[in-house]
Design brief:
two-stranded antiparallel ribbon, 8 helices
Length: 258
């Protein structure tokens, strides 16, 4: 247990340092890129009171809408927001994996690991939504838009919320674990949909790996991604250790009382 906690603390520290370093690189060494333009109708531009710089004439569409250059601030949020979102998908996948393991093996430890992974994934989803709102405001001039990526990600957050409500509404431990595992797997289907939807149907949300990132931008992005995953794994490991300690104490307490 001590080794597990020590490993988690080291991962947390290294992950925090990598994330901080990536954010500093984003401000001081990364090339400022506009990541293209954002397209708004005249009504949207007026409603959002946008102050974005109008894109050059050769980038203007012929359908009457207006293209604006994305401001530099959206690029800085990008180094924090995208790694959070990628980590949330990954941790959600871990939760679904342990849910499948529980249904096949019926071992309580798999349900515990699935629940804790869901807790960590939910934490990352909330952080992604907050930074995403800041990005949306900076990039599109509005706090929210029913864009396919945003909508499917919001659905994913709500499904996670329902997962915890479901767990708390069932008293029987075995039934609770079984229903929660089934729901976790069904809810996880939304994760790949949300991840790939910008590649399938038209969306304002940029596709990161098709954005032509310069090497000075790619390095801090990868560093931030690694750091964020390390932080996520550290939180997960600490929570698993805490839960295992609590379960051991309950076993000892029951043994003493009997």
């Amino acid at each position: 247990m001590k080794k597990q906690i020590k490993t988690a603390v080291i991962l947390m520290l290294v992950g925090g340092l990598l994330t901080a370093a990536a954010f500093l690189m984003a401000f001081y060494t990364a090339e400022v890129q506009t990541f293209g333009t954002v397209n708004l109708t005249k009504a949207q531009a007026a409603a959002s009171n946008t102050v974005f710089e109008v894109a050059p004439a050769n980038l203007q569409p012929i359908d009457g809408t207006i293209n604006y250059l994305r401001p530099w601030l959206s690029q800085k949020i990008f180094y924090f927001h995208v790694p959070l979102a990628e980590a949330s998908f990954l941790i959600f996948t871990v939760a679904a994996f342990f849910a499948i393991m529980f249904l096949s093996k019926r071992r309580k430890s798999f349900d515990t690991k699935s629940r804790i992974a869901m807790e960590v994934a939910f934490l990352f989803v909330i952080a992604t939504m907050i930074t995403g709102d800041l990005w949306t405001r900076a990039s599109w001039g509005m706090w929210w838009d029913w864009d396919p990526r945003l909508t499917t990600y919001l659905i994913m957050m709500l499904l996670m919320l329902v997962y915890f409500v479901l767990r708390n509404s069932i008293e029987d431990e075995e039934r609770r674990a079984m229903y929660a595992s089934v729901f976790c797997i069904i809810a996880w289907i939304d994760a790949p949909i949300s991840f790939f939807i910008t590649r399938i149907i038209p969306s304002q949300h940029p596709v990161v790996f098709n954005s032509g990132m310069a090497s000075s931008n790619l390095v801090p992005f990868i560093v931030a991604q690694v750091g964020m995953i390390m932080i996520g794994y550290a939180i997960y490991t600490l929570r698993v250790g805490e839960e295992q300690s609590r379960e051991r104490l309950e076993i000892i307490k029951e043994a003493i009382e009997n």
